[in-house]
Amino acid sequence: MHNSQVKKILITGPESTGKSTVTQQLAEWYDTLWVNEYARDYLDQLQRPYNYKDLALIAQKQFQIQKINADLANDYLFCDTGLEVIKVWSEFKYQTCDPWIKDHLSLQAFDLVFLMDIDLPWEYDEYRETPSKEIRELLFNTYKKELTDIYGGYHIINGTLDERLKKIKEIINQA
Predict the structure, then answer these.
(1) Using one digit for the tens of pLDDT, what is the confidence trace for 122-166?
(2) Which Pfam families does this UniProt record tie to the protein (predicted)?
């Protein structure tokens, strides 16, 4: 059973927007757990390019890790992405999304949702695929719609990494 005292906080958005860095720093600041983006761990172990079917496996493990850590966290659980990232990416790359992912989106039940803006410069890493400004804008706008549909709203967070961290802490402390 989920620890109802723990507030689950989602940090989401397009690639290269500071999600992982900010999520980890928030967990350290609030002395609690964070859930990393499982897709990176999965891809690190994969001996081939990922495909559509891999996305459902990644989503199931991400969901499972969120549930386990929610029971173990202190006060807050910070999640570096959730199933919405996999849905948005799946529909962008493959024009479809596995039904399991869609069925489990609303079951994540986040208390606060932060959408990271694309105002930071895109930085290369081996898993990032969308450096173009146009695609980043398209994905950002897709997130706005998805987060409204799934969670009923979100806070857009922009600025430098330090500014992002400060803004999120202010909203958390007011909640």
Answers:
(1) 888 888 888 789 999 999 999 999 999 999 999 999 999 999 999
(2) AAA_28 (PF13521)
**pTM: predicted TM-score of the whole model, two decimal places:** 0.94
| Range list of H helices, 47-132 | 52-72, 83-94, 99-104
Residues 20, 36: contact at Cβ < 8 Å? yes
Residue 1 forms part of a structural domain? no
Mind listing the pLDDT tens digit for each residue in 76-107? 999 999 999 999 999 999 999 999 999 999 89
Instruction: Report the distance separating Cα 88 and Cα 90, nearest Å.
Output: 6
Which DSSP helix (H) or strand (E) runs through 80? Answer: strand 76-80
Q: What is the dihedral of CA 95, 144, 159, 18, to 10 degrees?
A: -40
- Is 2 among the domain residues? no
State the residue range of the domain holding 120.
7-174
Within-domain flag for 43: yes
